[in-house]
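Q: Mind making up any chain with structure tokens?
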Amino acid sequence: QGELVESGGGLVQAGGSLRLSCAASGSIFSASAMAWYRQAPGKQRELVASIISGGITNYAASVKGRFTISRDNAQNTVNLQMNSLKPEDTGVYYCKAVFLGTTYWGQGTQVTVSS
């Protein structure tokens, strides 16, 4: 059916940058909406950024101006460029796609920002 595989997480100091990638297989890359979520320890999963057909993007207030979501149609990836990282950005980052009414999730990639 298809799957999502995230990569690019790691450990970075506050103020640094990371770039996450979500590779989509099968037909789900043509999903009408793709997004990045994150989950910090002890907290609920929250929306970080989303992108829909036509390239319209949406960001959580906490990351606006620091993070950028984009699609690479040639590589079938959705990327999240994260700049000016803060310790509160720490968490597991998940890629999500919604395709024909079905929701797909990746396995997650850990992002740790040290102060």
